[in-house]
Design brief:
Layout (H helix, E strand, L loop, with lengths): L3 E2 L31 E6 L15 E6 L10 E4 L2 E6 L4 E4 L1 E2 L8 E13 L2 E13 L14 H6 L1 H9 L4 E7 L3 E2 H12 L8 H12 L5 E2 L4 E8 L2 E7 L9 E4 L1 H12 L6 H14 L2
Parallel strand pairs: 1-2
Antiparallel strand pairs: 2-3, 4-5, 5-6, 7-8, 8-9, 9-10, 10-13, 11-12, 13-14, 14-15
C-alpha cells in the first residue's frame, strides 16, 4: 500500500466480515512472498493504538500493495480496524489485547502457508505477527537497513525473540481439522529443531500436545501463540472471536525458540510472513 490515506469512520452499516481463516504449520513449499509497506493514517478515535515511534497524532499500519484503489485492504468494523492478507483474504485486527498481556499488541506483518498436494499448491492458513510497540526502541542498530538485508540477517529476528516484550502469532484455520492432525503437523515442524530434548522440553511438549488431543478445530478457529518472555509462551484457542483465557502455558526455552524459528528462521514455513515483517521493520526503522 502506497502513500498516505485518511481512513474515515464508517457512514453506513457494514456487513459482517467473514471469519478469518488460517491453518497449522508444517513443511513449506516454494511460494512467492507478498511484499508489504507501512502506511501512515490519520489517527481516528475509533482506532485503539498507534506505534510509539510515531508522533502524537500519527500511527502506522500494514496494508498489502495488492489492494486496489477502489477497495482498500484496510476496513473498519465497529471500533476495530482490519488488514486483509491478500492471498487468503483473511482479515487481521491491526491492534488487539490478549490474555495476560500488559498492553495492546500491534500488527507488524501477515502471510500465508501453502502446501502442495499432488503438485497443486493449496493455501492452508494465514498468519499475523503482533508486537508490543515498545520493542521497536531497542532496535536502533538496524536503522537504515533494507527489507532484503533484514530478511537475510537472522540477528534482528533473534533479537525480537530474545527481547522480553510480548509478541504473538495469530493462526486462523481455513478448514476443519481434528486436534491430533493439527498437533502432528505442528510437532513435525518443531521437534527437528530440538536436537536433544531435556525432561523440561518433553514436559512442555506434552502440555502443548494435550490441549489439542481429542479436540475438534473448526474452520475459523483462532489459535494464538504469545511469547511473554523467551522461555514462556501462552497458547490460547478460540472458535468465537478473541480468546478470554489461556489454554496452556509452555515453559521451555528450547520449545518456544523452536516454534519462533519455524516462522522466522532460515527455512520459515511462511516466507510471505517473514518478508512482510522484514518490510514492516525496514519502514519503521528508517
Amino acid at each position: 500500500m502506497l502513500g498516505t490515506v485518511a481512513v474515515q469512520p464508517p457512514t453506513s452499516t457494514w456487513l459482517p466480515l467473514p471469519k478469518p481463516r488460517i491453518c497449522f504449520p508444517g513443511k513449506l513449499s516454494n511460494s512467492g512472498a507478498s511484499q508489504y509497506k507501512i502506511l501512515t493514517f490519520s489517527l481516528l478515535s475509533t482506532f485503539p493504538h498507534r506505534f510509539s515511534l510515531q508522533t502524537k497524532d500519527r500511527f502506522h499500519s500494514l496494508v498489502s500493495p495488492n489492494a486496489s484503489s477502489s477497495s482498500s485492504s484496510s476496513t473498519s468494523v465497529g471500533r476495530a480496524e482490519y488488514i486483509e492478507e491478500p492471498s487468503t483474504k483473511v482479515k487481521f485486527q491491526t491492534s488487539l489485547t490478549l490474555p495476560e498481556c500488559s498492553s495492546p499488541l500491534s500488527l507488524l506483518g501477515t502471510g500465508y502457508r501453502e502446501k502442495v498436494f499432488a503438485i497443486i499448491g493449496v493455501k492452508v492458513y494465514a498468519v499475523g505477527l503482533y508486537l508490543n510497540d515498545s520493542i521497536f526502541s531497542k532496535f536502533n542498530a538496524w536503522k537504515g537497513r533494507s527489507a532484503a538485508e533484514i530478511q537475510e540477517d537472522s540477528s534482528l529476528f533473534d533479537s525480537i525473540f530474545q527481547t522480553p516484550q510480548e509478541k504473538a502469532l495469530q493462526i486462523v484455520l481455513v478448514r476443519d481439522v481434528d486436534g491430533k492432525t493439527f498437533w502432528d503437523a505442528l510437532n513435525e515442524a518443531v521437534s527437528p529443531r530440538i536436537k536433544a530434548p531435556t525432561p523440561v522440553d518433553e514436559s512442555a511438549l506434552s502440555t502443548f500436545r494435550s490441549i489439542f488431543q481429542g479436540r475438534s478445530l473448526r474452520k475459523g478457529t483462532f489459535i494464538f501463540l504469545t511469547w511473554m518472555e523467551p522461555s514462556k509462551m501462552l497458547v490460547c484457542i478460540s472458535s468465537d472471536g478473541l480468546p478470554s483465557s489461556v489454554d496452556a502455558t509452555i515453559k521451555s526455552m528450547n520449545v518456544t525458540m523452536a516454534l519462533f524459528d519455524v516462522f522466522f528462521g532460515n527455512s520459515p514455513v511462511s516466507p510471505s510472513l517473514k518478508a512482510s515483517v522484514a518490510n514492516g521493520l525496514a519502514t519503521i526503522l528508517k
